[in-house]
Here is the input.
Amino acid sequence: MITRRGLLEAAGGAVAFGSGGALAAPAGSAALQEDTRPWLSPSLPAGTRAEAAFETLAGKKPLIRLTDRPPNYEAPLSYLRTAITPNDEFFVRYHLAGIPHVDASTWKLSIGGEVANSDVTLSLDALKTLPAFEVTAVCQCAGNRRGLFQPHVPGVQWGNGAMGCARWKGARLKDVLDLAGLKNNVVEIVFDGADGPVLDKTPDFLKSLPLWKATEETTLVAYEMNGEALPHLNGFPARIIVPGWTATYWMKHVITITAVTKPFDGFWMKSAYRIPIGKFPLVTHFLSQETETTTPITEIVVNSLITSPVDGARVKAGRRTMISGIAWDGGYGISMVEISADGGKSWMEAALGEDLGKYAFRSWSHEFIPKRRGKLAFAARATNRIGQTQIHELIQNPAGYNNNVVQTVTLDVV
Amino acid sequence: MRWIAIFTTLALVPALARAEEQEARLKQAPGVDMVEAQCGACHSLRFILMNSPFLGPAQWDAEVAKMIKAFGAPIEPADAKTIGDYLKENYGG
Here is the structure.
């Protein structure tokens, strides 16, 4: 339970972060009462629920603070009601606490490794002279909903909000690589960002992509997010955009891109961000990183979120009520969202909102009239264009990835 | 690594944030000073509170071992035991 002390500490923490940002009241702050906080699921660990609080970072609206060093902040449900997530409502996630302020005028992107010309370095202005492309895509942390795992598994205990969807603009990574000229035997492209560890001995956060994914048309070195420069905490001045794949590959503050001819064996590839092999219905694999037992997490699994009404909301019997939310997947596109009001025995098709592209959030809604008073449980289930659908029982895995269990909200019909 | 150059020229931000940060309050019990000093050197103590109370003794030991082996935390075996015992006693599940 969050106490008044917890909330006061949150306010102090926000100021202490040195943002100078106004401590704006969060949307729906009236709901910040005991047990009526829709932004913290009752399924989260008790320690998470007791410690999490709204906090305002520089350039952001209040986000749910899980940890402040390194910063891990998720979006409350109320920020996820639109298919595009505004920049100041976008979640923040860092692995390591060394986060520099990056100056756009001195920032450089170096491309090296197994390339014909290993001296290619781009300034931000030079990057922007390359042909620009846009893609609307979901950026979702691989561990989103880890906190809802039962039994709980260690890690950042995310609820539903370690994700957002934005319109990204930048140069194609392929075009950037072409400037240096890849050698024939390149298998992976490795990325490093300007952020780093506190200790020298801690492995820096480096990630790699298979060459085929790195050179897809939608994989970008992005410098704009929703028509503006990237917020500092979302990777200013440039980050890698990998539509369809989880955010672990979307390197923030990217400063080096290295072509390699052997599978990259850094800690964050070899040991972290892995799922047991054969447990999840992946279409695309990262084969050069696969072992006999584990494979890197890649595609975002098909999923949906009921964003309104919130769990426990009161609605009136006999009145029209709108249930709405978003759905998304790994880039095949959402084909259907269904709603069940009888525990999954029968399903009704919801109306889909505007199609912003196959990598984007797809909004959906369904109108109904609750007839009887009492508790009414609603479930939502998304299906994509290749027939993948959400699961009803969690697929256990040690690091708590790919939680796309059908979600249920219970309404109080009065 | 190239980031180090940028980090050293531009990065005063983390130090400032650290100094002003309002740390989480851990339970006052034997070992808490060691936990605050060693764990808090690299990350917020909120990581401990957030991951409670559900980790069993073996899982807490594994977390401490991971910080030393995978993340390079310079913690002596005796201190690691003090930290592990504190976590199991106060934040175990």
About this structure: Chain B has a mean pLDDT of 84. The two ends of chain B are 40 Å apart (CA to CA). Chain B touches chain A through 40 residues (CB under 8 Å). The domain at 25-91 of chain B is CATH 1.10.760.10 (Cytochrome Bc1 Complex; Chain D, domain 2).
